[in-house]
Amino acid sequence: MEYLIKELLAIDRRGRDIVEEAESQRARISDAVRKRSEGIRDTVESRAEAHIERTRNAYGQTAEERLAAAQADFNHRLLSMESLYNAKRDTWIDTLVARCIDPSVRQ
After folding, report:
1. Can you tell me whether residue 94 is helix, strand or coil?
2. Residue 105, C-beta contacts closer than 8 angstroms, at least 6 positions apart
3. Could you count the other beta carbons within 10 Å of the beta carbon of residue 98?
4. Number of other residues whose CB lies within 10 A of the CB of residue 95
5. Cα–Cα distance between 90 and 84 in angstroms, integer?
6. CB–CB of 107/95 below 8 Å?
7. What gap in Å lies between CA 82 and CA 74, rounded to an integer?
8. C-beta neighbour count of 16 within 10 angstroms
């Protein structure tokens, strides 16, 4: 009988050892998975931030370039209009005055 009790205690001890080893292994695996998950998240976040920054810079430069081109086009057209006005001003004034005085005048 004593032999049976000793054998049961040994079996119980081995069972506890197996459970402790399994719990320890589960904790190690859980830590490894958590660390791997954090590493993946950090990598994805850093790549996303870099992509966002590149995109932000590209669109910012594009917008600035378009604005500069529009401003240059505006300045060119303004100078062209001012030049045309200065060249034709006297003729236009004479025509307007003539039409106001005599509406039948067509020049």
Report:
1. helix
2. 98, 99
3. 14
4. 14
5. 11
6. yes
7. 12
8. 10
Dihedral over alpha carbons 95, 96, 99, 102 (to 10 degrees): -90
What span, in angstroms and rounded, lies between the C-alpha atoms of 42 and 54? 18
- Other residues' Cβ atoms within 10 Å of the Cβ of residue 99: 13
Structure tokens at 27: 């904790």
Q: What is the pLDDT along the chain (107 residues), one digit of tens a residue?
A: 888 888 899 999 999 999 999 999 999 999 999 999 999 999 999 999 999 888 888 787 788 888 899 999 999 999 999 999 999 999 999 888 888 888 776 65
How long is the chain?
107
DSSP characters for 28-87? Answer: HHHHHHHHHHHHHHHHHHHHHHHHHHHHHHHHHHHHHHHHHHHHHHHHHHHHHHHHHHHH
